[in-house]
């Protein structure tokens, strides 16, 4: 499992809940500026997901997308929700994956009329390839509710502006269709998210929209027929399947994760200097990780079972002290049970299951440095026992 998460953002509560139903082991993450994210895993446990609500509009979407990127260092950023279609051949409920995002409100006003000067962002090549592969395989449809109609997945540009378009004949609607006549759908957040991703070394960013209205003056009718929840269910199914797909690709670890792993290795290394006769051992060090023992042999490293017991006790103390909330404690206790049960089988498969559960546990406790460090010690002990 890739240790870096996939960030999924939505604009509406309806969209947020549709994605949330695909996640498990959720815990709340409080950003120092007041934003609340939820961190959990896809139901299959193979992808860590950060879920956030940005509200309507490109500007808040850009700010909160940047906030999520800085906070979580994701391997990819997805924006999921509903959109209005721009052409009749696109059906209600269809899923549109943006190949390009147009920020269509850029332009210059001259005597002879308004001249478009759009910003354009293109989906990354690998993300596009994986999205197409997912559509061809059809495996993403397993995430749809049982008995649901299977929508078409369409790839093409999406236009992102600052107004809700609900007319086919207004001057604005005619200008959009004429100037951006290859755009499949229209919405209000993708440009902000795309800009934030672009400013972060071209972080892979994918916009997945379910078509909920025709953007032609019939929005009240389609909303009354419940096309918004139907469309966003389709978009959430495809987006979470794509997140799982992206998590399988070999990404380089973040610099923070690489440093942490290197530190873990240093902390488990043992160096012994032995002096005989009249010789003496001196110590000169710039940085010391772990314990230094002089005049005695180092104690043997604790085994995984002992470390698990200590971790369980420390978790209970943290719960009593109120540093771990009840939801986090319950989720952590569940993963500890999986670890204990998996290790009891004394098989390679059981060991692998235990390692996955421990990585989930470390993600749950990432805000509590001491507990997260204890989880890392258990992981190190299991690896060392191979």
Tell me what the structure shows.
- This protein is an alpha/beta fold and 386 residues long.
- It has two domains: 6-247, Rossmann fold; 257-270 and 298-384, no CATH class.
- It contains twelve helices and twelve strands.
- It has helices at 13-20, 58-72, 125-137, 171-179, 190-198, 219-224, 227-247, 255-268, 304-321, 326-344, 348-364, 369-384; strands at residues 6-10, 23-30, 36-42, 48-53, 76-85, 95-103, 107-110, 113-116, 119-122, 153-160, 185-187, 205-213.
- The strands form two sheets. A five-stranded mixed barrel has the order 5-11-10-6-12, surrounded by five helices. A two-stranded antiparallel sheet has the order 7-8.
- Helix 11 (348-364) packs antiparallel against helix 12 (369-384).
- It starts with 5 loop residues before the first strand and ends with a helix.
In a nutshell, what does this entry contain?
The protein has helices at 13-20, 58-72, 125-137, 171-179, 190-198, 219-224, 227-247, 255-268, 304-321, 326-344, 348-364, 369-384, and strands at 6-10, 23-30, 36-42, 48-53, 76-85, 95-103, 107-110, 113-116, 119-122, 153-160, 185-187, 205-213.
